[in-house]
Design goal:
- The chain has one domain: CoaB-like (Rossmann fold), CATH 3.40.50.
- The protein has eight helices and 16 strands.
- The chain has an eight-stranded mixed sheet with strand order 8-5-2-9-13-14-15-16, sandwiched between helices. Strands 1, 10, 11 and 12 form a four-stranded mixed sheet that branches.
- It binds ligand 9Z3.
- Ligand 9Z3 binds next to α3 and β13.
- Its EC number is 6.3.2.51.
- This is Phosphopantothenate--cysteine ligase cab2.
Length: about 350
């Protein structure tokens, strides 16, 4: 059972980063990001931080159980490829083992990657002829990105790792000024277990092994505990990181967030609400069931606009043989989303430049 925290206690910055531990890999990841950003800043290249995949909320410090957020990483990995094609360098902040740019074409499909291979007459392993053309294209784009060092992969698993990384990377991106872009496609937990309320060991389901977790020290009660045979989970709200990003960590970058809903009647309202609450540049709304072929752009100038891939051109999983992929090739909606975002980014940079010139 998940209970919403009815108390008025809220984790806010700087409290969050003072009371939740820095991940051990953070320093290394920030060091890698720093030299990546320096390289591209030196070449006056735009840098996009693309977040992708879902964050987890561990219930135990030595984690056996955790709560997860839905996302395969398709939106982020696909968008990253289009940003690279548009000339950006990309910091790809992704859930470990979710989809990655380029390899996404071959992983997580119903085919095992070995199904793309065969033996030639000489016995060497080669790509099956039907996949040759598409794989050659993906390979040459991937090679170019490797050669130019324009893609840096940075994995996270928990919401805590995500928040520390997002803050650290945003600080590193500050010198880029308006050339920095945040494209927040990751599905981030709204609720979490703060470090001070996390139990160390696996929660015991058997009543015969349950510990008495109440303590008289005044510390807050653990977020997860057994009540007889029932597991009771009482989560804290995750601090409003978008507010911290817009106001403090990345005040000069363009910031685009995604809003995920399941109820169509709420999408536009919630997207507009987020935009007004955080005052960033663009919210892209999407519904769980239609996210692959329609999205709603809600922008700061008051505009609301749907982008829709027509029925015959939708990209559907190959195991759905509904004829949608017959005829014209399928369109990935990110191939329409990303150029629009890049164009808005150009306008923002030009505005900044003309403002500077008039001083
Ligand atoms: C999204 O809405 C993404 O488009 C999806 C992509 C997670 C739906 P997939 O990876 O899915 O292609 O399978 N991301 C944002 C989700 C989110 O947590 N947004 C927060 C919210 O809705 C605001 S940052 O409140």
């Amino acid at each position: 059972m998940v209970q919403q925290n009815g108390t008025s206690e809220q984790s806010t910055e700087p409290d969050y980063f003072q009371t939740n531990p820095e991940p051990p890999t953070l320093d290394r990841q920030i060091t890698l990001a720093r030299s990546f950003i320096e390289q591209h800043a030196g070449q006056d290249r735009r840098v996009a931080l693309v977040t992708s995949g879902g964050t987890t909320v561990p219930l135990e410090n030595q984690t056996v159980r955790f709560i997860d957020n839905f996302s395969a990483g398709t939106r982020g990995a696909t968008s990253a490829e289009y940003f690279l094609e548009a000339g950006y360098a990309v910091l790809f902040l992704h859930r470990q083992f979710s989809l990655l740019p380029y390899s996404r074409h071959y992983s997580h499909s119903t085919n095992c990657f070995l199904d793309f291979m065969t033996h030639n007459d000489a016995g060497a392993v080669v790509v099956e002829s039907e996949y040759q053309q598409q794989m050659a294209q993906v390979l040459s784009r991937y090679r170019k990105v490797k050669q130019d060092n324009t893609l840096l992969l940075l994995p996270f698993t928990t919401v805590n790792e995500y928040l520390w990384l997002l803050r650290g990377l945003a600080m590193q991106m500050q010198p880029l000024g308006a050339n920095g872009l945040f494209y927040l496609a990751a599905a981030v937990s709204d609720f979490f277990v703060p470090a001070e309320r996390m139990v160390e060991h696996k929660i015991q389901s058997s009543e015969d092994f349950q510990e008495d977790l109440t303590n008289g020290s005044g510390a807050r009660a653990p977020a997860a505990h057994m009540e007889g045979k029932r597991l009771v989970i009482d989560l804290d709200p995750v601090p409003k990181f978008l507010k911290m990003l817009v106001d403090g960590w990345a005040p000069r970058s363009m910031i685009v967030s995604f809003k995920l809903e399941t109820d169509p009647s709420l999408l536009a309202k919630k997207a507009r609400y987020a935009l007004e609450k955080y005052s960033h540049h663009l919210v892209i709304g999407n519904l769980l069931n239609t996210r692959k072929w329609e999205v709603l752009f809600v922008s700061a100038d008051g505009g609301e606009r749907w982008i829709r891939v027509p029925a015959g051109r939708r990209s559907v999983p190959t195991w759905i043989h509904d004829g949608a992929q017959m005829g014209e090739p399928a369109i990935e909606i990110e191939s329409w989303i990303v150029p629009e975002v890049a164009e808005e980014h150009t306008k923002m940079i030009e505005k900044r430049l003309s403002k500077q010139a008039s001083y």
